[in-house]
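We store chain and fold; thus.
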Amino acid sequence: MNLTPLQQNVLLTLTTEWQTPIQIAAQLSNASEDTSSVNQPLKDLVQKGLVQVNPIIMGMYRLTPDGTSIKSGLLGG
């Protein structure tokens, strides 16, 4: 699967726990809690089935099993 460097960074930042875009952006070294840098990659990753949106609490994201598998591959595991 082809992912842009920014999509890869966002994917590597995500976990299986629910996170907000602010939390994700804060973990990226160059983002400094600017959610605009993670919003589009999150949408792209949701469309690819790698990230899930919380159906009850809007604005919360986590990895899907496929996303976890891709993340492991990116980490070399």
In short: The CA atoms of residues 67 and 73 lie 10 Å apart. The chain has a mean pLDDT of 91. The helical segments are 5-13, 21-27, 36-47, 65-74.
